[in-house]
Amino acid sequence: MSKNLYIVPYDFTPTSEKALAYALHVGKHVATEIRLIHLAKDRAKGMEKVKQLDELIKNTQTPSSVELTKMVKVGDIFSDIGKIAKKEKAQLIIMGTHGMKGMQWLFGSFAMKILQSCECPFLIVQKNTKIEEIAHISVPIDLTKESMQIVGVAGDMARIMKSDVTVLVEKQSDPMLISRIQNRIGIVQNEYEEKGVKCDIHFVKKKGSYQKKIIKHAKENKVGLIALAFHSESLFPQFDTFAQNLITNKSGLPVLIINSKLASSLYY
Asked: How far apart are CA 100 and CA 139, in angstroms?
């Protein structure tokens, strides 16, 4: 039986512990190797972490569908996680984020910085993320072709987790834009029908913050996961407030996100 590879950057902090717990939760639903990646400052510190990870793996209960492994390397998380994921052909990186606080307000989210160098999708969790079954996945799209790159990824996750998908779309008044968005919707519906995933379309008013409307819809409809494509045109994408505010949402909802500039196909 072939296995997927999920990478969990692990630094022994509570947020990385939550990422591992969430990875094990997802792993209950699909044959998976979960590889803990620790990037050490030097060889001596790396050897210490090898022993700690061995002990952690020994004492961690895993579902029968999961193989828990480790990798310790000297390196830097911002530049090396993406390289490792590409070389090892990982399908998903599951990572914890500390959220937007302290100096991160000034320098941008660490998670967003790492995302810039990665081709495969991220599943971002926070310390307050609940580990529970995902009944509904919210997939916001817009008029850009880049936003559509999350559709297949979200559909694969929905198929694994046996979730429904709600595609969020802002209402348009211009006839040309209405035509374009209807075309997008048709593509989405066809893809989800082929995957056997139940899909609903939900229109939201164009006026106001799209990010706030996504969170509001999630709270009102028991959404368990938000999935989106990150496609900022900013010179420094880590300062993109739309994506940052979603991955650090106060409810702790997990967010499945891809960098649309580098994204490759995801297969489960």
From this structure: 23
Does the pLDDT of residue 9 top 90, yes or no? yes
**Cα–Cα distance between 196 and 24 in angstroms, integer?**
24
**Termini Cα distance of the chain:** 12
pLDDT-based confidence at 7, cuts 50/70/90? very high
Chain segment 134-162, per-residue pLDDT in tens? 999 999 998 888 889 999 999 999 999 99
Q: How confident is the model at residue 51 (pLDDT cuts 50, 70, 90)?
A: very high
* Residue 29 pLDDT > 70: yes
CA distance readout (Å), 1 to 66, 159, 195, 267: 12, 18, 21, 15
Tokens of 91: 């399908």
